[in-house]
């Protein structure tokens, strides 16, 4: 066991009856010394032995404290004996040192033969002293750079890399061989019986389907003849008594290149190329000592009536938890091994491969041909075959051996026929036109949460070209979640028309095409490259879009969408400024991705938003914000400079589409794919609008005039409560008396203005709507609290009075307009079986003015439970 300790120098000790000081050597601290005072001999110990009686008075009494210091034999001066007193053979003896008398042996406390004692051996190892550079690093730790979003390797990841890195070697067949990376080498039970049971299940399945049987047998025979003998993932993942091989395997770290980064670089240059590693997992062999873990059963020759034979797999197989990590590690290990001999091919494999798919773009045909040759040679040296080559350049395809080309171009007449459609990491690529397109081929899915999610996920769009279109479908999914609709329950009648309309409009996605390259052919030498990031948010969602702006030597400008993101707003009500700030953070994250993945040099960068509140947040350096705002402002500051942020009007902000959603037709007519018009100007005029300082108040705060108006509205609400009532049905009788009558000396009631006021009005630029919404909120709370106050519950203290005929009551109505208190007179009581009134019949009076100014009163009768009533005036007793 290792315990931390500190070194202490300069200590000295002396005996109680001595003036001689003894310097101690270097001493080490410990939190707890495993010794207590019962270990120390005392005067009582000396009295038990006749030969020690002369030192009884010389023994020091024990103090009521813990042992604080242990002196070892490395301090010989403190241990040097000055005098001995001995007794019989099995009796203790006394020894005097410069520290005083002590007794060795014979302590009655430890004479019990049934007690055991443990002796400790300690080894001291000092850490190296702190170097000056280390001291500086500690002092400046608050200023070090760190990436919060990048996770480091776990202990399991390190163990995986150590196991595979030490065990990887090239075998006699030219393939890399790696061990199975176990967490701890297991002892697994014999599961042959279970394998036989599963084989019999497979046999019955094959006998029921002749076509499936023929394909399966052909597949297995090809595997056995090839010598790989793998692809039975069920033998890897199936558990026996709760134990599976996958549970003992390390998955390893994520060694994949970023998919978005590969696609972004795929658009960078005019000549594009795709390729694939054939059966990549099967090209990396398993170490011989681990192959017994990969046994399986099969009928030799495909004869289902013969006795099954046992086989061992020699390669890393599909279904094993460690196989993806081993294959990716092996491919990168191979590329690094030949990085000095074939640098371009090595860099292509290291940077632009996603699992077994390689995508890249280069400047010229010659460079693409050379790159294909180098990558093929590197893979061949590791036993891998690079094939399925395709390019938008016919000369590149022609340079590739026919057997190594993609299947759909092997028999193609490159002189006359058009190049086909191809998928580049799932994105539809029209190779002939060199454009990205969308193929809408929706499967029949039920209108349930599961079916809708499946439909939305089938429209694969990693770069966000049609993100505004998908936002509407995501909003429908979110609404289903809000209403608690289960996975396989049908969509509600209210949402069904929206879903049907969205699906019908998807056919227009086939009209959308995006150039694969950022700049058109023949654009010329590029002198200036700029990145422009736009962000926006609404109650529906938030998002961003990033554009790359190029300017050539002639002054021509070209602008194109690099990537976009569109996300639905959270279910929890969030203020618009906070959503806008979150969108700005997403824009900053997109900026970091583009700068990290793109290979352009000297890019100038700008950020655009139509929210003055966000701009105020970013510029403000003095105010302490709430945690939510402060964290996001910090992220923005860490990845961008304040002077990079600009204001853009809402009508020119393309990110507005990402926050509200578009139909495919609207997207084609919008500036989403091309960017705002001002980016296409030869000279980009930057606005000189000063970013407003954010006020001390929050953006939803009121100005002085608005606050005074709100106070007046609140006073009118509080003073509109009725005090007394004489009559409800006669137009000649006065209205119920309220405090407003006494304060304003006016009989009229202040009615609320027409309109529906929503939470977003708190952030409205119209201060009038802001005040009216706050007044509505005050009215709602005041009505509830006032009615609860005058109707205090007495049921646990004393019997409650029954409602009686003639009582004047207030109706609890959550939909009542502001300042309106619905009053009624009890006409009839309806008691329950226990004799207590549970329901009453009321007469309501509604006074209105006709056009000529004449006041009329309409009466109506309703039944209400007593829980919805509050007694204002009790009926007079007879």
Automatic annotation (TrEMBL):
<dbReference type="InterPro" id="IPR008042">
    <property type="entry name" value="Retrotrans_Pao"/>
</dbReference>
<protein>
    <recommendedName>
        <fullName>DUF5641 domain-containing protein</fullName>
    </recommendedName>
</protein>
<dbReference type="Pfam" id="PF18701">
    <property type="entry name" value="DUF5641"/>
</dbReference>
<dbReference type="Pfam" id="PF05380">
    <property type="entry name" value="Peptidase_A17"/>
</dbReference>
<dbReference type="InterPro" id="IPR040676">
    <property type="entry name" value="DUF5641"/>
</dbReference>
<dbReference type="InterPro" id="IPR043502">
    <property type="entry name" value="DNA/RNA_pol_sf"/>
</dbReference>
<feature type="domain" description="DUF5641">
    <location>
        <begin position="767"/>
        <end position="856"/>
    </location>
</feature>
């Amino acid at each position: 066991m290792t315990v931390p300790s500190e070194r202490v120098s300069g200590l000295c000790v002396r005996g109680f009856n001595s003036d001689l000081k003894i310097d101690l050597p270097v001493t080490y601290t410990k939190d707890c010394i495993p010794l207590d005072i019962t270990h120390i001999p005392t005067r009582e110990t000396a009295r038990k032995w006749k030969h020690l009686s002369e030192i009884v008075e010389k023994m020091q009494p024990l103090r009521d404290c813990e042992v604080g210091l242990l002196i070892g034999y490395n301090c010989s001066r403190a241990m040097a004996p000055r005098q001995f007193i001995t007794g019989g053979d099995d009796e203790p003896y006394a020894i005097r040192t410069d520290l005083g008398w002590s007794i060795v042996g014979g302590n009655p406390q430890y004479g019990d033969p049934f007690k055991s004692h443990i002796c400790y051996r300690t080894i001291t190892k000092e850490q190296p002293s702190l170097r000056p550079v280390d001291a500086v690093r500690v002092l400046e730790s608050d200023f070090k750079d760190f990436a919060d979003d990048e996770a480091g390797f776990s202990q399991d990841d390190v163990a995986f890399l150590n196991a595979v890195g030490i065990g990887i070697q090239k075998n006699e067949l030219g393939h890399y061989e790696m061990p199975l990376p176990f967490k701890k080498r297991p002892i697994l039970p014999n599961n042959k019986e279970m394998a036989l049971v599963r084989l019999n299940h497979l046999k019955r399945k094959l006998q029921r389907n002749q076509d499936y049987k023929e394909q399966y047998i052909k597949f297995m025979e090809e595997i056995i003849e090839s010598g790989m003998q793998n692809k039975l993932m069920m033998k890897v993942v199936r558990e026996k008594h709760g134990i599976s091989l996958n549970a003992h395997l390390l998955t390893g770290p994520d060694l994949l290149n970023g998919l978005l980064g590969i696609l972004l670089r795929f658009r960078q240059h005019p000549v594009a190329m795709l390729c694939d590693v054939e059966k990549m997992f099967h090209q990396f062999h398993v170490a011989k000592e681990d192959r017994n873990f990969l046994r399986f059963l099969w009928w030799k020759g495909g004869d289902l009536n013969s006795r099954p034979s046992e086989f061992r797999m020699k390669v890393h197989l599909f279904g094993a938890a460690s196989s993806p990590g081993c294959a990716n590690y092996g491919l990168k290990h191979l590329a690094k091994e030949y990085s000095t001999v074939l640098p371009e091919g090595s860099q292509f494999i290291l940077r632009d491969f996603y699992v077994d798919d390689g995508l890249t773009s280069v400047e010229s045909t010659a460079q693409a041909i050379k790159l294909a040759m180098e990558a093929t040679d590197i893979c061949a040296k590791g036993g891998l075959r690079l094939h399925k080559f395709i390019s938008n350049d016919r000369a590149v395809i022609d340079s590739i051996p026919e057997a190594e080309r993609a299947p759909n171009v092997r028999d193609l007449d490159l002189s006359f026929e058009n190049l086909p459609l191809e998928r580049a990491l799932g994105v539809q690529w029209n190779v002939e036109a060199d454009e990205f397109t969308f193929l809408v081929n929706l499967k029949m899915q039920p209108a349930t949460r599961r079916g809708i999610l499946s439909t939305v996920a089938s429209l694969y769009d990693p770069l966000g070209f049609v993100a505004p279109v998908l936002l509407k479908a995501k909003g429908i999914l979110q609404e289903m979640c809000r209403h608690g609709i289960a996975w396989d329950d049908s969509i509600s009648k209210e949402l069904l028309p929206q879903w049907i309309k969205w699906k019908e409009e998807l056919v227009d996605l086939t009209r959308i095409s995006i150039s694969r390259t950022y700049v058109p052919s023949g654009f010329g030498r590029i002198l200036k490259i700029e990145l422009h990031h736009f962000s926006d948010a609404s109650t529906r969602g938030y998002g961003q879009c990033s554009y790359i702006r190029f300017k050539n030597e002639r002054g021509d400008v070209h602008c194109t969408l690099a990537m976009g993101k569109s996300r639905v707003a959270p279910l929890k009500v969030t203020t618009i400024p906070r959503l806008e700030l979150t969108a700005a953070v997403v824009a900053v994250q997109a900026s970091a991705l583009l700068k990290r993945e793109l290979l352009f040099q000297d890019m100038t960068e700008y950020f655009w938003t139509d929210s003055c509140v966000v701009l105020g947040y970013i510029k403000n350096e003095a105010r302490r914000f709430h945690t939510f705002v402060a964290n996001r402002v910090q992220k923005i500051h860490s990845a961008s400079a304040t002077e990079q942020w600009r204001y853009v009007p809402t009508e020119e902000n393309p990110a507005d589409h990402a926050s509200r959603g578009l139909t495919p037709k609207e997207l084609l007519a919008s500036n989403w794919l091309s960017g705002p018009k001002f980016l296409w100007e030869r000279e980009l005029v930057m606005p000189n609008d000063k970013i407003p300082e954010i006020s001390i108040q929050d953006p939803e705060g009121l100005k002085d005039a608005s606050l005074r108006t709100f106070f007046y509205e609140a006073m009118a609400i509080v003073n509109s409560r009725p005090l007394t009532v004489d009559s409800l049905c006669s137009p000649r009788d006065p209205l119920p008396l309220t405090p407003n009558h006494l304060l304003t000396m006016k009989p009229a009631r202040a009615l609320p203005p027409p309109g529906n006021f929503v939470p977003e009005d708190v952030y409205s630029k119209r201060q009038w709507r802001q005040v009216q919404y706050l007044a509505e909120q005050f009215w709602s709370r005041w009505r509830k609290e006032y009615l609860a106050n005058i109707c205090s519950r007495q049921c646990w203290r004393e019997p409650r009075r029954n409602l009686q005929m003639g009582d004047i009551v207030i109706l609890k109505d959550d939909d009542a307009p502001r300042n309106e208190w619905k009053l009624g007179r009890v006409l009839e009581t309806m008691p329950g079986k226990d004799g207590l009134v549970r329901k009453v019949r009321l007469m309501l009076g509604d006074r209105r003015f006709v056009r000529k100014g004449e006041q009329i009163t309409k009466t109506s009768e309703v039944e209400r439970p007593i829980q919805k009533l509050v007694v204002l005036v009790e009926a007079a007793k007879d």
